[in-house]
Amino acid sequence: MHTIFELQQLIEKAIREVEYPANPGKLYEPISYIMRLGGKRIRPVLLLLSSELFNHEASKAMEAALAIETFHNFTLIHDDIMDNAPLRRGQDTVHIKWGVNNAILSGDVMMVEANKHLTRLDAAVLKNALHCFNATAQGVCEGQQLDMEFEQRTDVSIREYINMIRLKTAVLVAGAMKLGAIVAGATEEDANYLYDFGENFGIAFQLQDDILDVFGDPAKFGKQVGGDIISNKQTFLLLKLKELAKGEDLSLLESQYSNTDYPAKIEAITTLYNQYGIRDLAITKMKHSLDIAFSALDKVSAAPAKKDELLQLAHSLIEREH
To answer: Which residues partner with 88 through β-bridges?
Structure first.
């Protein structure tokens, strides 16, 4: 078994060794650029950890890990275009650096590159691996579509929101873990347990992100605190407040949507969150998803000691500093 750090190093080395065609330069340079921007490589790490649960050498699952990371970065290129985001990991986004049309096309080619990585897997697991990958990719796209649609709606339910983050965020974590198990030759039952772990852990991770966006320490969280409030993003916290607030409180909340005095807006809505105990309700919801996740992991038929690195990574991600 490798440590998380060792797996991150293996992934970085594998990414650097991927050779893309030299021409056309404006098609392939953006791919090398975004793939080498860094990040924690959480999804490929989870894939390799899942594979190693079943006595499978990490290097044998590396093509699957590269497929997942390539697909993930493809979605980032297109998400940044949709969000008109200027920066990604502190650097210019691909569409800022090369233009929107080039960014779209480079993203398209990344989907092809991801499939090319998968086709290098052993023929015995290839069909199941492709099925898992394609279902995962489709789910992520569905989640992004729902997220965009929710921006135009005022009647989004908490159930709908949880389903959206399941698709947009959690399905890729789940799919990566199931793919790692498939490549390692795990039983269908074990692969599905890992999928259940990843899906519910991914939901918990996003709920924690929602909480930190309001209550986190900006120096430790790495983002502007209150960004979701400023943009009227329909997170679990806002939806729960809309569900519980009555009378003058509900009127106050609704009056804040158009408020452009952002510090005052953040203060007003945060005060309402505190008044209605929204943070504690969100934490309870997050912990419920975590309980389901860890229960699924317990059922995976691998020695408990082999799950240590996976558990360590999961706890480190969910216990990010407030």
So the answer is: 91
CA–CA distance, 75 with 111 (Å, rounded to integer): 9
pLDDT at 322: 46
Q: What residues are paired with 92 via a beta bridge?
A: 87
Q: What percent of the chain has pLDDT over 90?
A: 85
pTM of the full predicted structure?
Answer: 0.93
Q: How far is CA 245 from CA 155, 159, 235, 248, in A?
A: 15, 18, 15, 8
Determine the Cα–Cα distance for residues 122 and 280; give it in Å rounded to an integer: 47
Q: Are 81 and 95 in contact (CB under 8 A)?
A: yes
CA distance 286 to 88: 27
What single letter denotes the amino acid at residue 292?
A: I
How far apart, in whole angstroms, are the C-alpha atoms of residue 104 and residue 141?
15
Q: How far is CA 56 from CA 66, 179, 302, 314, in A?
A: 17, 13, 12, 21
Give the number of other CB atoms < 10 A from CB of residue 94: 27
Task: Identify the structural domains of the chain with CATH numbers, from first to last.
Answer: 4-318 (1.10.600.10)
Task: Quickly count: other Cβ atoms within 10 Å of residue 321's Cβ.
Answer: 10
Please report, to the nearest 10 degrees, the dihedral formed by the alpha carbons of residues 35, 41, 45, 46 taken in order: -110
Across 140-153, average pLDDT: 94
Which pair of tokens denotes residue 60?
A: 């044998």
pLDDT bucket at 220, cuts 50 / 70 / 90: low
What number of other Cβ atoms are within 10 A of residue 197's Cβ? 28
* Each residue's pLDDT tens digit, 243-288: 999 999 999 999 999 999 999 999 999 999 999 999 999 999 999 9
Task: Share the mean pLDDT of the chain.
Answer: 94
Instruction: Dump the DSSP string for 268-322.
Output: HHHHHHHHTTHHHHHHHHHHHHHHHHHHHHHTSSS-GGGGHHHHHHHHHHHT---
Per-residue confidence band for 1, with pLDDT thresholds at 50, 70 and 90: confident
